[in-house]
Each structure stands twice: as C-alpha cells, then as structure tokens.
Amino acid sequence: DVNLVKALRVFKKMTQYITDVDIQDFVGEDLSGFVKIEPYSTIGKSRLAMQDKYQQLAGIGVLGDIVNDPELNTEFKRKLDIIGFDAPRNRQVEFQRHENQMMMQADKMQQPINPPVMEWHDGPIHIREVENLLLDATLYDNPDKQLALQSLIAHRDSHMQKEEDIKIIQEAG
C-alpha cells in the first residue's frame, strides 16, 4: 500500500531522535505469526481517515511536537497533504492567513498587495505561514498568479527584514 509506505517513511523521519524504538520495514511473510492487526488500528486509506489517525498519534506524542515545531509541522503536512496540526486558535496564524488571502487576490486587483508589517506581529509565525503558501508549486507555473506570488514574496521579505532589524538591535543593546 503506497500510503502506508509513505506514512512509514515520514514516521521514521519524525522519530529519528527517539532512541529507544527501532523502526524497520517489513515485507509480506516477515510478519506472519508475529503480528495481529486489531480492527480500527490501521491507518485508513481515505484522506479523512488518515488525518484522524495522525491527529490521534500526535495527541499521544508519537509524532513529536508536531503542533509547535514549525519545520516538523510543515514537512508533515507537505508530505501527507493533510491539515489540522496547527496550534489551536493562534491569533497570529489566523491574522497571517487572512493577509495571505488578501495577497492571493493581487491578480484580480491587477496590482501587488503587501500588507504592512506591524510591530505586534510575531515574525516567525507570519514568515512560516507565507512560506507554507509558497510551497504550492502551481503559484510558480500559473501566469494568473504572478502578482500574488510577487506579493507573498515581498511580504515574507518584509517580515524577514523586521526580524533582522530586531536581531541587530538586540545585539547592539
């Protein structure tokens, strides 16, 4: 099953720092007589079933800190194309997603849209949310999304510049 193989690969990568568990690939007859599959214990094939099972695994900590580790979160969502692993009701995430939606309208407005970077913005969260959207390969190939792409990149760069300025001020002070 292709989904199971993908899931095992991602699971291996995510648990590479857990040293007391050895994960191995098993093929066909290797498991005969040793493994009993309990009903409802496997990962379903539908996207919703997979998402539900992975949320359960995340809830008990098997997948690491998938909610608060932005790199792990992004990699997991990108590889498995599932949602639902963001910190609950994070206002910064919600705000940046709103800004992302505005910037995605740039081509309809026929001009780039770059919302201002405010002092109270949490830069790493805003940068992560823009970069998550920039992972969509269709943005780069679609001529109708070039102003949106330009807007997203400019906005991310504005946040990155703000973070660099903060770092310089902290080092000087």
Give an account of the 3D structure.
With 173 residues, the protein is mainly alpha-helical. The chain has eight helices and no strands. It has helices at residues 2-14, 47-59, 70-80, 91-103, 106-109, 123-134, 138-141, 146-172. Helix 1 (2-14) runs antiparallel to helix 3, helix 4 packs across helix 6 and helix 6 (123-134) runs antiparallel to helix 8 (146-172). The longest helix has 27 residues, at 146-172. The termini are far apart. The model has no long low-confidence stretch (mean pLDDT 78).
Report a brief summary of the structure.
The chain is mostly helical.
- Elements, N to C (H/E): HHHHHHHH
Broad structural category: mainly alpha
- Strand tally: 0
Silhouette: globular
Helix content: 55-70%
Reported for the largest beta sheet, the result is: none
- Give the DSSP E fraction (strand runs of 2 or more residues): under 5%
Distance between the termini: 57 Å
The pLDDT mean sits at 78
Q: Which stretches of 5+ consecutive residues score pLDDT under 50?
A: none
**Alpha-carbon Rg, integer:** 20 Å
Tally of helical segments: 8
Notable characteristics:
173 residues, 0% strand, single chain, 8 helices, mainly alpha
What's the arrangement of secondary structure elements?
Layout: H1 2-14, H2 47-59, H3 70-80, H4 91-103, H5 106-109, H6 123-134, H7 138-141, H8 146-172
Helix pairs in contact: 1-3, 4-6, 6-8
